[in-house]
Amino acid sequence: MKTTISKIGASAGKQVTLGAWLAHKRSSGKIAFLQLRDGTGFIQGVVVKAEVGEELFAQAKNLTQETSLYVTGVVQTDERSPSGYELTVTDFTVISESHDYPITPKEHGTEFLMDHRHVWLRSKRQQAVMKIRDQIINATYEFFHEHDFSKLDSPILTGSSPEGTSELFATKYFDEDAFLSQSGQLYAEAGAMALGRVFTFGPTFRAEKSKTRRHLIEFWMIEPEMAFVEFDENLEWQENYVSHLAASVLKNNQIELKTLGRDLSKLEAIQAPFPRITYDEALAFLHEKGFDDISWGDDFGSPHETAIAEHYEKPVFITHYPTSLKPFYMQPDPNRPEVVLCADLIAPEGYGEIIGGSERIHDYELLKQRISEHNLSEETYAWYLDLRKYGSVPHSGFGLGLERTVAWLSGVEHVRETIPFPRLLNRLYP
């Protein structure tokens, strides 16, 4: 019977056949231990010379790393194994031999591993991160569909930007200027006026010349938008969504979290509600901690966010930023127009901002004024203004960066490990 490693427990005591690759092997006299992987998991195959014969045993001892195989054997319960099982091999057939596999058990430099990303993905650690990424994506669809959101596909090629064009990749769209999208938000707002609650999920691009462990040039964003939702309710949606992601990873990725050495208590603490502090309170806190380099109206950098986050076990909302720091579409606080009804959600453990969100301006005249103040073309944003002409309502939304969230929940240091093929400032290969 053909099966996969993830389903092998259903065949305990029975003979099965796996299609697999040889991750590693070791031999001890008359026994060879094959570490097999098939994409769904890892399992040890035990080849006993007395049971398979001299010829097959010699072949097993000479197998090379990443050779592909069909392996037949009997499934045995083994409590020492991460999967709970191992395979007593009775036969195997080589599909394709692997020669001079570049990534060996020895240490390799980061640049070497990134140059070989196409095969580095096969390692146990990288597979664990990709499995957690997949689970977060699955949990995202689960959460939003359970709460009556519709998936909306926003365009990647756009003629305008939600946050100005200084960090966009420009291209030609026949005879017009176009840009690679940095956000699906404006289109999601149109979707929310039609469908009530929507979310976009797709690649976004930032031409930001940054080399920090938190930044990618191409990354994926999840951007919900909700009609009839004001500022405080928007924060509740965010903390419930993030709590759902953490709970889903804890439930479904125990093997992967163990592989990565993740401290599970850190994830268990991620439960709504999350603490909330204003920009003013955050600034006062930073001054108390000796950060004298920042004044009211300045944006917070990574050291500032990390210092604030270290004060909490959970993610923390920083709300009510100065209007001058934020994009044109954010709703000003009616009691204090120099700040806007926005929040950044800062993850603990130094992972920085994972969500930015706000209530959106729903008044036509105010939005028109903001477009002018930001020196944007009213003609370019005419369709966006239209949303305030035909039955405008209070509405809010947010954007979650997938790769930063994967890094945080999995505990890996750099976002380059959280996307299959990272695009970095100096990397477009492979």
TrEMBL record:
GO terms for biological process: asparaginyl-tRNA aminoacylation. One of its GO terms (molecular function) is asparagine-tRNA ligase activity. Keywords: Aminoacyl-tRNA synthetase, ATP-binding, Cytoplasm, Ligase, Nucleotide-binding, Protein biosynthesis. It is an enzyme of class 6 (ligase). InterPro entries: Aa-tRNA-synt_II, aa-tRNA-synth_II, aa-tRNA-synth_II/BPL/LPL, Asn-tRNA-ligase, Asp/Asn-tRNA-synth_IIb, NA-bd_OB-fold, NA-bd_OB_tRNA. Residues 130-430 form the Aminoacyl-transfer RNA synthetases class-II family profile domain. Its EC number is 6.1.1.22. Its main location: cytoplasm. It is found in: Cytoplasm. It catalyses: tRNA(Asn) + L-asparagine + ATP = L-asparaginyl-tRNA(Asn) + AMP + diphosphate + H(+). One of its GO terms (cellular component) is cytoplasm. Belongs to the class-II aminoacyl-tRNA synthetase family. Homodimer. This is Asparagine--tRNA ligase.
